[in-house]
Design brief:
The protein contains eight helices and 15 strands. With 278 residues, it is an alpha/beta fold.
């Protein structure tokens, strides 16, 4: 039987990981079977406060729990950040369209993420790693303001390099180094320098970008400059949402409902719209 999309599935918060001073990852065990695909989002209910949209950051192949990585910005997220394991939450969804993995198959995939924008990209990356043979080269570009500001530090700075070095080229940067940092220093767009030499055919390559609006804007421009076509650049758009179902109109962007037609869009669908980076 199809679940009522307005009714949240109860779930228990079982683990909280402090990623940075204002970003935490929350592991939730749903009381009913709950699955999603990378790029889709959920509405998370914090009882007594309200709900807010988040893209799960855990692997969609993980069936026991799901994780969301959340930056503290306002009412719902501040309450969520104060919660301890044991609390009951609610999950609605999944909503929206996932990353089109059928389009990515047999292509090089360049992933570019910054800040909390790495959340949906972690779900995407872990999905690609489950079926590595389906994709060609994978280049994962990650940026943070400082080494301390990386979310998923252990994975991005160490674990994934050991586990996936046969398939993935990591390009990591920080805007500002500390005394321990030995890697690249520069904005995340600098990780794309020379990527064009590694891509043999731009018709057989896609780029996926998620991060703060200004980062997505300059990364998209750089990808266009190095040879990507607008239809091969996939962006995750965030708009204020309410129903998540294409009914209330809160999330309209030009002719699209971000909750239903997105949140993942190829840049070709957005490029002529005003204020997409606001
Ligand atoms: C599809 C989608 C996926 C998202 N995934 C994530 C994620 O994985 N991790 C994460 O940390 N955040 C994510 N967000 C943003 C997150 O939904 C907002 O930060 C959250 O709704 C803020 O709720 P609040 O009650 O704490 O803030 P509020 O008290 O409502 O507002 C505080 C501030 O946040 C801004 N804000 C409020 N709602 C949104 C919104 N929906 N998008 C952008 N800014 C907003 C307001 O302009 C205000 O400045 C996502 C948003 C969308 C639409
Ligand atoms: S959130 Fe209601 S139409 Fe998109």
């Amino acid at each position: 039987m199809r679940r009522n999309s307005y009714l949240p599935v109860p779930g228990e918060l079982v683990k909280v990981v402090e990623e940075t001073p204002n970003i935490k990852t929350f592991r939730i065990v749903p009381e009913e079977e709950f699955s999603f695909q990378a790029g889709q989002f959920i509405e998370l209910t914090v009882p007594g406060v309200g709900e807010a949209p988040f893209t799960p950051s855990s692997s969609p192949f993980e069936k026991e729990f799901l994780e969301v990585t959340v930056m503290k910005v306002g009412r719902v997220t501040t309450t969520l950040h104060a919660l301890e394991p044991g609390v009951k939450l609610g999950i609605r969804g999944p909503f929206g369209k996932p990353y089109p993995l059928d389009v990515f198959a047999n292509k090089d995939v360049v992933i570019v993420g910054g800040g909390v924008g790495l959340a949906p990209l972690r779900a995407l990356f872990l999905t690609l790693m489950e079926e590595k043979e389906k994709y060609k080269k994978i280049i994962f570009c990650c940026g943070a303001k400082t080494p301390e500001d990386f979310i998923y530090k252990e994975s991005i700075l160490d674990k994934w390099h050991k586990e996936f070095s046969d398939k993935v080229c990591f390009r990591i940067t920080v805007d500002q180094a500390d005394e321990k940092w030995k890697g690249n220093v520069g904005l995340v767009t600098t990780t794309l320098d020379g990527v064009n030499e590694e891509i043999s055919d731009f018709d057989k390559s896609v780029a996926v970008v998620c991060g703060p609006p200004v980062m997505m804007k300059f990364t998209t421009f750089k990808l266009l400059e190095i040879g990507y076509k607008p239809e091969s650049i996939y962006l995750s758009m965030e708009k204020n949402m309410s129903c998540g179902l294409g009914k209330c109109g809160h999330c309209m962007m030009g002719p699209y409902y971000v909750c239903k037609d997105g949140p993942v869009f190829p840049y070709s669908k957005l490029k002529n719209m005003p204020k997409i980076w606001d």
